[in-house]
Specification:
The complex is a heterodimer of chains A (295) and B (238). Chain A is α/β, with parallel strands linked by helices and 295 residues long. Chain A is built from eleven helices and eight strands. Helices cover 26% and strands 19% of the residues of chain B. Classes of the chains: A alpha/beta (295), B alpha/beta (238). The complex binds iron/sulfur cluster (2 copies). One iron/sulfur cluster binds next to α6 of chain B.
Chain lengths: 295, 238
């Protein structure tokens, strides 16, 4: 039988609808900002991701919030990207994270530094997400990339990302197949606002033996929706959602409703769980889940 | 070919300012083909320098500055004699002795080769960008090879992801593809739109009926073969 190290993996294997959340590390050394997010999420999600300097902006590193969260009783999913670390740093970081109690790692390629506030930085990308996945499995199996044996391997579960709305989709699905072959045990997707994307995702990945958690994030305003459409790859937002936002007299309530409907749709399409990115609406996560009726 | 861009005149003038007599040497290779350092541009450069008050004593053209001669072939010769040996005269070769420095209009490789056989300073007129080609349509330059030392074009449809994917990925597109374009096209530092190399690779392989090539996990690049600053000992590399 497969060994299980984390509550998150245990939940997925149990067949229970599993909800993961997300914590955004602050720009500065503000521990309280992490604690605040954890307080809101803790009762509602099994585990929460900690991002790794998304778009390459400099913020608190991934490990510190992971450790703070776990001290407060919320399990962490450590996001590791290939943007800033070569194979030496990546392996070393994961080994250290495991020693500090991290049990889930999400292997991502990472955004190009040109996208962020340090565009002059040297991009690393020594490995890619498929190769990082394979390296993580090898570490867990007790060997580093140099073939040296590890007496105390990192006991981690390995997750990967997926962009379900990109066009053409076939190369993205092929890449997911490679990630599964490389050792991926779960996948979380980019934001989805369109049920058609959910439907297509469930069809195109039906042949794959991996739990996929579609990513859902509340839409807080028309402005945010337009920004996402223009700047985030693979996003589609149906006309009726735009109308709901336009006609809304209480944007917070509308955002909660839209998220709740999407969460319900995720379950309807038979996905084993959902990845909820609160994007600042941490205090309302409980309400989104309650209104969705998935639990 | 090697893609270059001429340096701004102010920078060239600043570089040349300590020297009283300057010789210009152009190149008949890539820089001639792409019109940044051929005979015509060498003459134009001389004109601009003279207008700015620089004493240009001689102009010459090397056939290819990336291959000039063996060091033994010029042993015992003066700098002026060496220039006469490796370059054909455009103007003023009788005055070469007066040159205190050489401005080379070749790429970085050519500048170094010329510098290697001369005692006087050889200065670059170009910024050398990369190996690739100039796309006349759309007027932009396309980097095509990084000289990685381990060519993978066989399974990438003849499109190099090491040079043409912004992240040099080995195993397919990242999540940053936006309508077939690479995410860096929308970066905060302004740029030409860049097509996603992996989408181009996918389309090409699809057309060739070879999409299965994308399904194999490709190993990490071996930077003992591919690192920049490497030295290849002739005859030693396997
Ligand atoms: S794979 Fe390497 S050698 Fe081949 S074109 Fe690309 S960079 Fe050049
Ligand atoms: S969008 Fe395409 S070219 Fe750009 S980094 Fe990603 S895979 Fe590479």
């Amino acid at each position: 039988m497969k060994e299980v190290y984390s509550n998150f993996m245990r939940s997925l294997l149990s067949g229970k609808f599993t909800i993961s959340g997300e914590v955004d590390p602050p720009r500065d050394a503000n521990r309280a900002a992490v604690e605040e997010q954890v307080r809101h999420l803790k009762e509602h999600v099994v585990a929460a991701n900690v991002t790794d300097n998304p778009i390459g902006d400099v913020i608190m590193n991934t490990l510190a919030p992971c450790v703070i969260m776990q001290e407060l009783g919320l399990e962490a999913i450590y996001q590791a990207t290939c943007r800033d670390r070569n194979r030496i740093a990546l392996q070393s970081d994961i080994i250290g994270a495991a020693a500090l109690g991290i049990k889930n790692v999400l292997a991502l390629t990472g955004d190009h530094p040109k996208m962020g506030n340090h565009p002059q930085a040297k991009p690393v990308f020594d490995l890619d997400s498929v190769l990082l996945t394979r390296v993580l499995r090898r570490l867990r199996e007790g060997e580093n990339m140099a073939g040296e044996k590890l007496e105390h391997p990192p006991r981690i579960h390995i997750g990967v990302g997926l962009s379900p709305g990109v066009e053409p989709l076939e190369p993205e699905i092929i890449k997911l197949e490679k990630k599964v072959e490389a050792g991926a045990e779960f996948a979380q997707t980019q934001c989805i606002y369109d049920e058609k994307v959910l439907e297509r995702l469930s069809e195109e990945t039906a042949h794959l033996d991996i739990p996929i958690l579609p990513g859902i994030a509340p839409l807080r305003s028309v402005g945010m929706a337009k920004f996402m459409l223009a700047n985030v790859p693979g996003i589609s937002i149906p006309e009726e959602l735009m109308k709901k936002l336009e006609n809304s007299s209480n944007l917070t309530e509308t955002a909660i409703d839209i998220a709740a409907e999407l969460i319900a749709a995720v379950k309807d399409y038979g996905f084993p769980g959902v990845h909820l990115m609160p994007v600042g609406m941490d205090a309302h996560v409980g309400e989104m889940i309650a209104r969705s009726g998935v639990r | 070919m090697i893609i270059t861009r001429q340096k701004p005149m102010e920078e060239i003038l600043e570089m040349l300012s300590p020297y009283r007599g300057v010789a210009l040497v152009g190149c008949g290779g890539c820089v001639a083909f792409y019109r940044t350092g051929g005979a015509k541009q060498t003459r134009e450069m001389a004109e601009k320098l003279r207008e700015a008050g620089v004493s240009v004593v001689a102009l010459g053209m090397a056939n290819r500055q990336c291959y000039l001669c063996e060091e033994s072939e010029v042993a015992g010769l003066s700098d002026a004699e060496r220039i006469r040996k490796v370059a054909r005269e455009l103007e003023g070769f009788a005055q070469l002795e007066k040159a205190e420095a050489v401005l080379s209009l070749a790429c970085g490789v050519g500048v170094q080769n010329l510098a290697n056989i001369l005692d006087i300073p050889v200065l670059p007129a170009q910024n050398t960008l990369f190996m690739g080609r100039r796309r006349v349509e759309g007027d932009f330059d396309l980097e095509q090879c990084l000289g990685c030392g381990d060519c993978i074009l066989a399974f990438t449809g003849g499109i190099c992801p090491i040079a043409r994917c912004a992240k040099s990925l080995m195993n397919g597109p990242c999540g940053g593809v936006f309508n077939g374009m690479c995410e860096v096209s929308k970066s905060r530092v302004s740029e030409h739109p860049v097509p996603c190399a992996w989408i181009e690779i996918y389309r090409k392989l699809k057309k060739q009926g070879r999409v299965q090539e994308l399904r194999k996990i490709r190993p990490p690049k071996d930077f003992t073969r591919a690192a920049h600053m490497r030295k290849v000992a002739w005859g030693v590399q396997k």
